[in-house]
Amino acid sequence: MWIVYALGAALFAGLTAILSKCGIRNTDSSLATALRTIIVLLFSWLMVFIVGSQASIPEIGSNTLLFLVLSGLSTGASWLCYFKALQLGNVNKVTPIDKSSTILTIILAFVFLGENMTVVKAVAILAIGTGTYLMIERKETNKTDPQSNLWLAYAIGSAVFASLTAILGKVGIEGVESNLGTAIRTMVVLIMAWIVVVVTKKQNTLKLIDRKSWVYLVLSGFATGGSWLCYYRALKDGPASVVVPIDKLSILVTIAFSYLFLKEKLTFKATMGLVLISTGTLALLL
Predict the structure, then answer these.
(1) Does the keyword Lyase apply (predicted)?
(2) How far apart are the first and last CA of the chain?
């Protein structure tokens, strides 16, 4: 059953990237992240009360709570980097880098969680790494604009923090119901996001958000909420080294929608990269 949840997480995550890209076109990325997190938080706690796991809050151990908080901080950092990268770069370039967190997650799961490192996983890592390189390589570099490659740094930061989120989340949810764990982590993300907004004084731009952007931000929040709930439910029952790769298949959804709605096209080299990433990801399911 955890595989079904993992596939659901991939679908919703793919939709999140497109909806978020549309929502942050005329909105500061940090403010957009903070606003979206409100929706995710409401969605998360709604699920907590639906399943009745709020009664187990007093039973959460200090060690579990610590890892949930650390996971939330990693998630917040990943989100802030990811949506800043989306604002600066193309979806079909940012997403492959973000999804390359699979590589680091597998390595960390092997080192800290004791999950096996097989030949298949090693080959998959090579395929995903090569595919990511092919998808982000550009023929030309804008040397006159020092900010032109800034999206790349944010995308890499997103991938690093996403991998830490998976490992910390896996440890943190072992002693708590998955929906409740997601809700607690989301609270941490919300606090972190709004601290960034206030420090950078971006809250003053709230009144500048147009109606269309609000719609996309709200929808992306619901998509994120659905992805999270599916993802951490799958992570609770399944191995991190398999759940995470399935979730990363959301790149196929994202690339498809970026072509249909954002008119972002892939070169032949980038297409070969996408094939390698997908093949490597699917190989991890063996």
Answers:
(1) no
(2) 16
